[in-house]
Amino acid sequence: MKSLFACIVLVFAIQNVWAQQEEPVVSDSIQAQVDILDVVFKKRRDSVNQAKLQEEKKVYFSLMPLSSGSGGPNIAISVVNASFHLGNAEDTKFSNVTLYPSTNLRTYFHLKAIPNLWLASNNWNIPGKLEFTQDAQDNYGLGANTSEDSLFVIKYKLSRAHVSFNKRLVNHVYLGGGYALDYYYDIREESEADRQTDFDLYPYGTEGTSISSGLTVDMLIDSRVNPINPLEGVYVNLTLRVNPTWMGSDDLWYSMYLDTRKYINFSQEKHRVLAFWGLYWATYGEVPYLEMPASGMDFFGWTGRGYHRARFRGRQMVYTEAEFRFDFTPNGLFGGVVFANMQSELEEASQAFEYIKPAVGTGIRLKFNKFSDSNLTFDMGYGDGFNWYLGLNEVF
Hints:
Radius of gyration: 21 Å
CATH class: Mainly Beta
Strand content: over 45%
Structural class: mainly beta
CATH topology: Porin
CATH architecture: Beta Barrel
Distance between the termini: 26 Å
CATH superfamily: membrane protein fhac: a member of the omp85/tpsb transporter family
Number of strands: 18
Largest sheet: 18 strands, antiparallel
């Protein structure tokens, strides 16, 4: 089973590598006629003067005043996305920075900033992540067949900084490297059951603090024109990370993160996009407990719609998802999606993928900014029950 899942993801990645040689048919986003700003201000921003102003505009802002979901404990105070060009718009992709502050209004908070920068003519790509967190995370143990009765809570604080610098080699292919720091502290477990949990029995990263400091090697293929809401193209991101003790890590461990995506466009006038996502996330060595792959704990935090955050955890994780995106209305103001996903985590005892956890769902879209093609999103997923998600921009 382990080999089968790994082969599926790797074949998907190879297909994307070959597909990157083809230039996208669509040169820009399909522009909606109306967005929420037109509705609020009761004036359509599509006159000649407005179009000229939009072309000269340097930054497009998208804002979700309140965001939340049943898959996690916090309510977002706001989600702000700034999209802009750092070069000529004709040959430079949209850069974007997402700021995501959230809290449960009592004791826990998250503050995340996720930049993805494209320098002039797309010669350099600089992705990153900065995060400060005080959290209480529901956990159920290791593997993909854990019972809801095994629930325990891990409380912790986290300071995280990741950055990579990727140089274009040819066409859409980039190679680079970076630095990653994860500092967990004030780690403690709370469980109502009088029993030992997998966290109690695990030897790494469970003693109050956990420091992982390491270097990354990154390979990127990205032929998407607008990463905010891709119409077509491919995306392949392979990150190899090593965390040596001489750089400050508590323990020596390694990871491989292979993220592959494919977009198929069926229309030049409306959103009719079939999107595929495959993720293989593996860790090796003396891996801290909270660094192991888990549902919803990937780089962007969107795996496992339909399940609670961190519902399944293991040393390795395989994840696949397909989503169809479409417009409801001819003017592009309202749209929808349907999606299905499945995941499997490595079982600690057998060191094999033994169980598959599927989920399905649907959602609606409201066009926030027609010039950057950003959406307000609401999704419902069913996995271990119904879970809902309110956010900004597409999941992948």
